[in-house]
Amino acid sequence: MTVSANPLLSDRDVDFQLYEVLDAPALCALPAFSEHSRETFELVLGNVRRFSREVLFPTYRMMDAEPPVFRDGRVHAHPLMRKLYPQLVELGLLTASRPPEVGGQQLPLTLYSMASAYLMAANLSAYAYVGLTIGAAHLLEAFGTPWLREQFMTRMYRGEWTGTMALTEPQAGSSLGDVKARAFPAEDGSYRISGSKIFISGGDQDFTENVVHLTLARIEGAPPGTRGISLFAVPSRRPEGDRLVDNDVRVAGVIHKIGWRGMPSLALNYGEEGDCRGWLVGEANRGLACMFQMMNEARIMVGLNGVATASVAYHEALAYARSRPQGRSAGAKDALQPQTPIIEHADVRRMLLRQKAIVEGGLSLLAATSVQADLAAHSPDEETRKRAGLLLDLLTPVAKTFPAEKGFEANVLALQVHGGYGYSSEYLPEAWLRDQKLNSIHEGTTGIQGLDLLGRKVVAAGGAALQAFSEEVLATVARARQAGVHGPWCAAMEASLEAVLELTMSLGAMGMAGEVEQMLRHSADYMELFSILAVAWRWLAQAAAAREGLAKGGESQEFYEGKLRAAQYWFATEVPRVKPLVKLCSSGEDSYTGMRPEWF
Amino acid sequence: MTVSANPLLSDRDVDFQLYEVLDAPALCALPAFSEHSRETFELVLGNVRRFSREVLFPTYRMMDAEPPVFRDGRVHAHPLMRKLYPQLVELGLLTASRPPEVGGQQLPLTLYSMASAYLMAANLSAYAYVGLTIGAAHLLEAFGTPWLREQFMTRMYRGEWTGTMALTEPQAGSSLGDVKARAFPAEDGSYRISGSKIFISGGDQDFTENVVHLTLARIEGAPPGTRGISLFAVPSRRPEGDRLVDNDVRVAGVIHKIGWRGMPSLALNYGEEGDCRGWLVGEANRGLACMFQMMNEARIMVGLNGVATASVAYHEALAYARSRPQGRSAGAKDALQPQTPIIEHADVRRMLLRQKAIVEGGLSLLAATSVQADLAAHSPDEETRKRAGLLLDLLTPVAKTFPAEKGFEANVLALQVHGGYGYSSEYLPEAWLRDQKLNSIHEGTTGIQGLDLLGRKVVAAGGAALQAFSEEVLATVARARQAGVHGPWCAAMEASLEAVLELTMSLGAMGMAGEVEQMLRHSADYMELFSILAVAWRWLAQAAAAREGLAKGGESQEFYEGKLRAAQYWFATEVPRVKPLVKLCSSGEDSYTGMRPEWF
Predict the structure, then answer these.
(1) What whole-number distance in Å separates Cα of residue A417 and Cα of residue A364?
(2) Which end of chain B has a smaller Cβ tally under 10 Å, C or N?
(3) Residue where a domain stops, chosen among B285, B319, B353
(4) A486 lies in which domain range?
(5) Residues in domain Acyl-CoA dehydrogenase/oxidase N-terminal (chains A, B) (predicted)?
């Protein structure tokens, strides 16, 4: 009795975010996007929606059930990938946001984000091959030599080869400064690479002829720690003349992941036979700096994945709640009457409304963050670029973490709505729950995002980043007031913002006084706090747009009423947590920093 | 690199709960337990600890990896069960808390609860066969005819047969009033049973010769709804003379559960060939009343399972955090220095301390609830029995829900502490995460527990239940003050209690005025609120006992310091949520009750 027609995301909501909450087509006024218009947006979204629902989503369960197989030294992806990957390439995804010089369409990231959310919701593993290839090729585009761009990047963008990010080593997970893989300069200008990597997503497959690993390693004699790490392009098979020959990158094992099961996560050994060649990307010893330039975009993609994975589960739960009869409304106890759909029960609606608030609040945050990314990269005005860059840096850890953490909570609720059926693998919610869990771990754990937000981002540029955020929030409050949004929400938004600003200044002062440990003590609580605030900002913006829409009349009245209820939910249940969290973060409370390991 | 020596639960903590926070051996002053003493407690716990660690825990992973198989119409349990079940029986578990008349030892439930937590933490599926058999046999003990007791109950208590609870039907999950299975009186005094059941845990196996299903069905002509449901004992094979013959109970399918994978969950068909016989248990049409008399104990067992499943994962995470080197402490950036164990990172300690607060707070709540169950069943004083019964009824939904919901959160944190490794099935945290999820669903979902707590339990007996709870909390505050516990915690406890009492009275008044929908609007938030309060009570009691212990000196100083830090954590991070939650529950906030299905 699985519900099959899942919209993945609400089209009405995506349009609402792009055209009513934001004015995304206005980005087309920037020279970089001047070829585009709202018509392009609709065309791209139309194609992606159709493909995601009709082609990609039906493959999800099969790929989850049959993970890639490691046999005879090679990884064999699900046979479906031989068909799917060319279709994903044909859709133009690999170069959608890249410039025409490399064959791209240069669409705004804002549009690409929304489009990719559908693909992720439909089948995140199939899409991940694309996403990783884009990331790897983009590094070559930004830092590679002309030879590397021609030999490697072009083939990756054309869909002939795929790419990976090969950072992690068994002894160095979050601590990249401890990477040990080595690189010895060779006479031909390449390097001989040796070492081991782990958790390499898409590290091998059999549906394209080659995989290029963007690999962190230390050049012989480099300084220890983060300052001695370089970036290399290391293909599984290297070009020699017209042929590809084995490049001594071996699959050492497959990790049995609990989710993202359509894509392999591998342990790789480089140079077991001393014949692994890599090519330096960017300057020697500047490998981490190169990686970090791509980090915002990578983290936005994780955030989108969080939203997408929560969204597809939310829509499944919603359809189930509408169709599953069970019990009767409070008061109506007549057992001869038919049972009512469970959506009639207040507690089921609570679970659905919480999911809606998380999913659509998260999507709105990602859309707003993507706009800043577009402005930061493409505004012709330097001041605008700088300010947008600060906002992008500030919002990114929140846009990565909120969907990962609260999206997981939404996935739990989607399972719970299904009752006992949710606990069985005949139904899909448990699969999305497994998928979602990775998002709090990869691309910087939630703990690391908290340190990044509080220790760097909110105190950046002498407070200019936070100042810019504050202006954005206050502009939204003004818009909401103008639109006639419930006054107490506007007041709560202002008061919450002020409380967070004040807290941040006092924590920043601690940091400047050298009390870093004390400043960062509650970085996890601060992340929670800032997430509530940032999502309240997005719900206020949505409430404003809903009020504006209602004033215009038309067909979307029910949609707007739903938006106002979800905004109400956020302001009634989450925003009141700001005050106690501010108090906690400023209290000097030291239970866990003071807890000694031997006391556990 | 899995960490293998897992203590399951901390022995020191279990002893602390039994002998320092509570005075559990004082229960032996009751006539029913007069044969026992602290020595019995230690003997029982010693056996269970040894068996759980040495025999049961090593089987967990194998049974999770190879669920029971449905072949040729029969379910074949993991072959290990053929050895394990007799060992579990030999340990005396089936009748540990039963009276001597049925061959039992009549141990206090308080002791049995703590002992069973070890077994559940070691291998919940293996133990579940025992737990279900006890529940089914106990129903026969309480309501069965002498013939049923002799024929069925005795064999179940002896470990020769197992038992199940067969309540749920596909169209009637939480809504038992909609059960459709039918029973026709036959001339021999038995009934002919027909119908279908689903999610029947342990519904078939091949390690004992028979399974008895305590089955809800309607006798031909019974009134509709909950008042027409009767309870029957329906064996898979029925006794005829000296033989067992097939009783026409068929396995219709196996549900692929995501956890508890060592135990099958089945769809059963009764009477496909018209030859299924059942025997009435208790009075006709009073089946639900019989079931509900066992409900407190069943829900306490679910709560224990939640604690146990969170506990084993917490101890795994703790050991991992102590042994896994990664990164360096804040400030120490010298890459030539060795990496530190991750327990040195404040955010890892936060995750561990939160787990500790949930696990040990939950265990303390279950121990306190079990004491009330013992007093309610066995105190010679009627007033005491009545008061304890009210407390038991009040605490049970909280003791079931808190470990299910917050225990799941603890399991998520245990996975997160393991980083990328936690996302792989080579490590155990993901398995316990899957196991834990069932606890918010079975034996009454979290939503149903919230309605039970607010709609029935806290307003029971004209407020007498809440009054008794309030007395218990205030007695603990007095003890804490006496022991020198941090004054502000005592004050916060009193203030929180008062706020919850006041809220409850105003909600109760709504209910009496007939505004039931409005009264119950925030039942989920009320459950959250009451859980924070109840666990704060238990942490205050633990802080008092820790202070008393510290004053005595001795070897446990580090243990007590850890207890005080965990209490501090609860009072600093959870108790401040009481105020906004009280406000939310009394605000009339109507976002989800007012959200119409078509607005989603």
Answers:
(1) 24
(2) N
(3) B285
(4) 294-329+338-586
(5) 42-160
User: Could you tell me if A310 and A425 lie in one domain?
Assistant: yes
Same domain assignment for residues B472 and B531: yes
Alpha-carbon distance A121 to nearest alpha carbon in chain B (angstroms): 19
With CB atoms and an 8 Å threshold, state whether A593 touches B349.
yes
pTM of the model: 0.97
Å from B586 to nearest chain A CA? 12
* C-alpha to C-alpha distance for A233 and A189, rounded to whole angstroms: 13
Q: Which of B20, B360, B443, B548 is catalytic?
A: B443
Closest-CA residue in chain B for A224?
Answer: B335
| Residue range A290-319, pLDDT digits in tens | 998 888 999 999 999 999 999 999 999 999
Which residue stretches of A223-294 are H helix? Answer: 287-293
Contact (CB<8Å) A600/B562: yes
- Domain match, B436 and B375 both: yes
Last residue of a domain, one of A117, A151, A185: A151
Hey, what are A205's tokens?
Answer: 């497959």
Report which DSSP code applies to A597.
G
According to the model, what pLDDT value does residue B333 have? 66
Secondary structure (DSSP) of B447-491 = HHHHHHIIIIITTGGGGHHHHHHHHHHHHHHHHHHHHT--HHHHH
Contact B595 A565 (CB under 8 A): yes
Condensed to tens digits (0 to 9), the pLDDT of residues A266-281 reads 999 999 999 999 999 9
Residues of A in contact with B413 (CB under 8 A): none
* CATH code of the domain covering residue A108: 1.10.540.10
Pairwise CB contact (< 8 Å): A258 & B524: no
Name chain A contacts of B325, Cβ cutoff 8 Å. Answer: 171
d(CA B112, CA A375): 64
Q: Which residues of A are catalytic?
A: 443
Same structural domain, A85 and A143 = yes
Q: Which residues of A touch B568 (CB under 8 A)?
A: 589, 591
Structure tokens at B284: 């006709």
Whether the per-residue pLDDT at A61 is higher than 80: the answer is yes
- A321 in any annotated domain: yes
Query: Each residue of B222-280: pLDDT tens digit?
Result: 999 999 999 999 999 999 999 999 999 999 999 999 999 999 999 999 999 999 999 99
| SS3 readout for A187-202 | CCCCEEEEEEEEEEEC
Interface test with A, best of B408, B423, B589 (most A CBs within 10 A): B423
If one counts the domains in chain B, the total is 3
CATH number at residue A558: 1.20.140.10
From the list B450, B558, B584, which residue is nearest A347 (CB)? B450
Q: Are B190 and B267 found together in one domain?
A: yes
Count H helices and E strands in chain A, helices first.
20, 12
Tell me which chain A residue has its CA closest to the CA of residue B171. Answer: A326
Q: Please indicate whether, in this complex, the C-beta atoms of B441 and A451 are within 8 angstroms of each other.
A: no
DSSP code at position B222: P
Residues constituting chain B: 600
Nearest to B17 by CA among B305, B307, B301: B307
Please give the residue of chain B at the shortest CA–CA distance from A443.
Answer: B420
Which H or E run includes B503?
helix B487-512
Chain B residues whose CB is inside 8 A of the A597 CB are 322, 341, 343-344, 349
Q: Cα separation of B431 and B260, whole Å?
A: 9
Question: In the structure encoding, which two tokens stand for residue A262, read together?
Answer: 């359509």
Banded model confidence at residue B2, pLDDT cuts 50, 70, 90: very low
User: In the Cβ-directed half-sphere of A270, how many Cα atoms lie within 13 Å?
Assistant: 32
* Cβ-defined contact of A173 to B419 (cutoff 8 Å): yes
Residue B308 lies in a domain: yes
Segment A576-588, tens digit of pLDDT: 999 999 999 999 9
Cβ separation of B438 and A416 shorter than 8 Å?
Answer: no
The answer to whether residue B597 is domain-embedded is no
